Amino acid sequence: xxxxxxxxxxxxxxxxxxxxxxxxxxxxxxxxxxxxxxxxxxxxxxxxxxxxxxxxxxxxxxxxxxxxxxxxxxxxxxxxxxxxxxxxxxxxxxxxxxxxxxxxxxxxxxxxxxxxxxxxxxxxxxxxxxxxxxxxxxxxxxxxxxxxxxxxxxxxxxxxxxxxxxxxxxxxxxxxxxxxxxxxxxxxxxxxxxxxxxxxxxxxxxxxxxxxxxxxxxxxxxxxxxxxxxxxxxxxxxxxxxxxxxxxxxxxxxxxxxxxxxxxxxxxxxxxxxxxxxxxxxxxxxxxxxxxxxxxxxxxxxxxxxxxxxxxxxxxxxxxxxxxxxxxxxxxxxx
Amino acid sequence: xxxxxxxxxxxxxxxxxxxxxxxxxxxxxxxxxxxxxxxxxxxxxxxxxxxxxxxxxxxxxxxxxxxxxxxxxxxxxxxxxxxxxxxxxxxxxxxxxxxxxxxxxxxxxxxxxxxxxxxxxxxxxxxxxxxxxxxxxxxxxxxxxxxxxxxxxxxxxxxxxxxxxxxxxxxxxxxxxxxxxxxxxxxxxxxxxxxxxxxxxxxxxxxxxxxxxxxxxxxxxxxxxxxxxxxxxxxxxxxxxxxxxxxxxxxxxxxxxxxxxxxxxxxxxxxxxxxxxxxxxxxxxxxxxxxxxxxxxxxxxxxxxxxxxxxxxxxxxxxxxxxxxxxxxxxxxxx
DNA sequence: CTGAAAGCGCTAACAG
DNA sequence: CTGTTAGCGCTTTCAG
Lengths: 335, 335
Hints:
Shape of chain A: elongated
Pfam family, one (chains A, B): Peripla_BP_3
Order of helices and strands of chain A: HHHHEHEHEEEHEHEHEHEHEHHEE
Radius of gyration of chain A: 25 Å
Largest sheet of chain A: 6 strands, parallel
Oligomer: homodimer
Strand order of the largest sheet of chain A: 2-1-3-4-5-11
Number of helices of chain A: 13
Helix content of chain A: 40-55%
Largest interface: A-B, 57 and 57 residues
Distance between the termini of chain A: 73 Å
CATH architecture of the largest domain in chain A: 3-Layer(aba) Sandwich
Protein name (chains A, B): LacI family DNA-binding transcriptional regulator
Number of domains of chain A: 3
Keywords (chains A, B): DNA-binding, Repressor, Transcription, Transcription regulation
GO molecular function (chains A, B): DNA-binding transcription factor activity; transcription cis-regulatory region binding
Organism (chains A, B): Rothia terrae
Strand content of chain A: 15-25%
């Protein structure tokens, strides 16, 4: 039989479809005998419940969507992998959406997700299309975004991490430190951490903004151009490890001695980058823990009858900020 | 209204549900007037067709599943991103499955995918659970797997790429070249390319197998241990860029001069790794082109009435092998 | 403990 | 050009 249905099973087992459904969902009282008959029939037909028909009836899809700029970025790749693993363990499927940081793409995805009635969404995308969506009924958790009163936002202590990075550079003797960031903004906590520490030390801050959607080659060039034109710069704090790596490569080409003459710190500390550049000093985010928490919060909301209240429960928002660890590497001098 | 249905739209527009459905699908003859009324009603209700109900009826989900070991691996991360982009452009959604190379996980996923009636599957996972699945009715395309007569297998010219890498090392004067691979096997084309070239040059081949599912730290240790114990080795050909990076890092720690005293070539050539290690010599796969082809082949099969015949069409199998390019970098000496 | 019947939201004959 | 009817595969009252 090509696509056996519950009715086919019922026919073979000699019971009603209702009974088969009960066996499937383990609901109500069933005699052992009946169960056995039904199981036997299912085996015989290699029956698989049709998830679509189920969803139509239940109003639950057991699907969660992930919206990230691109999983080719190490941080998002790692995060997506952990999230998928945790969700899969809890019986949820994951739909992947790479927004590429195009608000328009993100909007299309939201439409799609609403159509598909996904139970939940986890987003790390940068356009705020979703969080501000008026009629979103899915549970929603954001990753490393601005705090909202309506949705949990899982993030690391960006401000503290940036302070650690900047302080480490200053302690190691750097005086002309440039911070490379994707997008400047007053609410950018890594930038704020950097600025505050620089100011407290009476050092002149310098920020290089390289844009988010740009190609990596363009970003690399923006960074090397800047460094070429600012020979007094003696240290770089990148808002992610890739920017730090660009700076490091520039130093190598220039035959600058690292860390003696030029120091570098990144941010994120993914396994992938640590494998490739074990010496890079960086601020490590506990990505796996963050993924775990995001899934916890999302599942709780999805399985509650009042998801929006669960999500907006202020009492635990403070738990959603994770501490960072500074990993010294050898691209920063010892103080 | 919380979740407007097609009937609600019909009621407001003063037409039958069928008519609304026709407008939605742009089928049959509709008067302009009717169309306008229906569109107006849809807008008024912010109506979104329920994709689930649609799928139940159509027997098409417009969903494709991606099964890869993990998108945290640069090659799969890049591949997944490109695939998702292309598929999304063609109106397909993507479900992400990270098998972690556990055959058991892969099997679970297959069950799930069958339940969800995905239209197609693209897999680069290593267990052969899917390709050998007897009753798979979805279209299937594999990435860099062994050739089958039943499904397209998109891959690069692994054999030729490995030959280029090995030859480049030999031409540059290397004599004790070790090949680092995940899993040894007779059908491993990168390994075969390496072996053939070594043999033709009367050089003794050495293969280090580091396993697939192992943690990156364990792989790194296996590699450094091997290199520590075999000081005569003067070059490494890694079956991926990460293995090559491990060797490179080892050389740096040992203060070996690269490429003078120690040479390294990797495989894959993803943008992500090129950003971080621009000097690494490697065999570049045309990942974006491969993704494009995979999607083409899959879509063709999904939209055909005889998907299995389309997939097994031998005449174009040869087109599914993509040429590689050797990128010299500076970790190999000039001949 | 089990079954009959209705319906989730949509589409596809078949009429008109 | 438009409406009526049935049904995709499952779950869920409501009866027995």
